[in-house]
């Protein structure tokens, strides 16, 4: 049975999602500003926003299964919003790292990115999220044409990289990392056909480039 029967229902769902996604971010920042995050508030902020990004990414990828189970195609209209919140939380994660942890010492930040693989993976993940965010609007869809879907299939390796970064950072218990990994595998398994098509496309593209050299 469809969950959304009118535009008003959709507006209510969007409003609830905005509140759900924004409230924790604002609340956590306020706790940090008022020195209520314990002995190491910077690490707490960095970890919180990183986890928040993964949560939003999970929610984004859960939209398609939810549409099928609830027979509510209108839910597709919230997927981009959730994806943008994933990028927002990831950006806050980066900002806290760059501004609070390293105080804009760009040379040292560059060294850390090169020296520490988990930071390298995290930066690559953020760049991919930024690409998907900037190309999520209708103008980008028209400009990219058929390639738009292929570009946005990057969300699958992006999820893998995000989970690798999460596990590698060792800022959470192992059982928590395993739980997140299982959720990620479940969401990817749901899209195994799309994953196969995506890998075949990039393999054929690489083969075509090799043939034209």
UniProtKB/TrEMBL annotation:
Claim: Phosphoprotein is one of the keywords in the record: no
Keyword Phosphoprotein assigned: no
Spans through the membrane: 12-33, 45-70, 82-104, 116-137, 149-168, 174-190
InterPro entries named among the record's database cross-references: Fe3_Rdtase_TM_dom, MsrQ-like
GO biological process: protein repair
Primary residence: membrane
Family: Belongs to the MsrQ family.
Name this protein carries in UniProt: Protein-methionine-sulfoxide reductase heme-binding subunit MsrQ
This protein's encoding gene: msrQ
